[in-house]
Design goal:
Elements: H1 3-24, H2 26-50, H3 57-76, H4 83-100, H5 107-125, H6 127-132, H7 135-138, E1 147-151, E2 154-158, H8 160-186, H9 201-227, E3 229-230, H10 233-261, H11 276-297, E4 299-300
Helix pairs in contact: 1-2, 1-8, 2-3, 2-5, 3-5, 4-5, 5-11, 8-9, 8-10, 9-10, 10-11
Length: 304
């Protein structure tokens, strides 16, 4: 089985599961984000070790996986962790470094790398859950479903939060695809060859344009008629542009990490796709940015 076949087969299985978790929200979404965060943290610490760091991997992986679950508990109002808990967790890592690393085990680098790994994976990916239940959305989403589509004669209710979370995800995919094809067709001048030799200026522009076009299509034909929410024409351009920039910066940042450590892929966990970070590097940057943009740009669609 060649690389392309493995990639396609994995996508056929994984994509529907991911979309179901996004639309379902709640525990399925939190569980998916927890697994992705923990595996992403494992890869991050693997890269860090290849670069000479000595992170507290076990603690970091556990905390990264727990962050989305803690966010889920907060939104359920089951238990809300005060900000001081984060400070205590950092202090606990500092204390653990005394015994786990000692003077000669580079304790400062170990703690800094561990905290960065948790923030980069668990914290940033948890913005996907926060976006799914954005406060602005809750003001318009009084019912479990806010619209419906007919598929094979059956009416399926769709969650507004799920539709909203799909927007930056689709824009990220559009940006990646646009950058790839435009870069291959017209790319001559490299973007940042020292970090990612394959990326071109033409590809970056193609990603920006693709993201804006898909943003307009999604808002016009999905978010507005089904979700009764919309973006102004300027809002569509800003949302698509900023999300694409965030996606491309996220991709470059992961390339920078791998290049410094001298590794090609973050891992081989995903058949034909490399590792978790190779697939989610763009979304790690996109989700927090999209959360802010929704609060600034989204508005109720006009009736009639």
């Amino acid at each position: 089985m060649n690389e392309l076949t493995r990639r396609v087969l994995f996508a056929v299985v994984a994509a529907p599961v991911a979309i179901w978790a996004i639309l379902a929200g709640g525990a399925p979404l939190a569980a998916m984000l927890a697994v992705v965060s923990a595996l992403g943290a494992w890869e991050f610490f693997r890269i860090a070790r290849a670069g000479g760091a000595t992170p507290l991997s076990g603690a970091g992986i556990a905390i990264a996986g727990l962050v989305p679950l803690a966010v889920h508990a907060h939104y359920l109002q089951v238990y809300s962790l005060p900000l001081a808990v984060a400070a205590v967790a950092v202090l606990a890592l500092c204390a653990a470094a005394i015994w786990a690393r000692g003077v000669h085990g580079k304790p400062l680098a170990a703690i800094a790398t561990t905290v960065l790994g948790v923030a980069y994976t668990g914290v940033m990916l948890s913005f996907g859950y926060a976006l799914r239940y954005h406060g602005y959305v809750r003001g318009f989403d009084g019912a479990p479903g806010i619209g419906g589509v007919s598929v094979f004669g059956r009416e399926w209710r769709l969650s507004l939060g799920g539709l909203l979370l799909l927007l930056p995800i689709l824009l990220t995919w559009a940006s990646d695809i646009g950058a790839y094809f435009v870069g291959r067709a017209f790319g001559r001048r490299k973007l940042i060859p020292s970090v990612s030799p394959g990326k071109t200026i033409a590809g970056a522009v193609g990603g920006l344009l693709a993201s804006i076009v898909v943003a307009w299509i999604y808002v016009r034909f999905v978010l507005q008629p089904v979700g009764q929410l919309t973006l102004s024409p300027v809002g569509v351009i800003v949302f698509g542009l900023v999300v694409s920039v965030a996606a491309q910066v996220g991709d470059l940042f992961e390339s920078l990490l791998k290049r410094e450590a001298g590794v090609k892929d973050s891992s081989r966990l995903l058949p034909g796709h490399g590792g978790i970070l190779d697939r989610f590097d763009s979304l790690i940057f996109v989700l927090p940015v999209a959360y802010l943009l929704v609060g600034w740009l989204l508005r109720a669609a006009p009736h009639g």
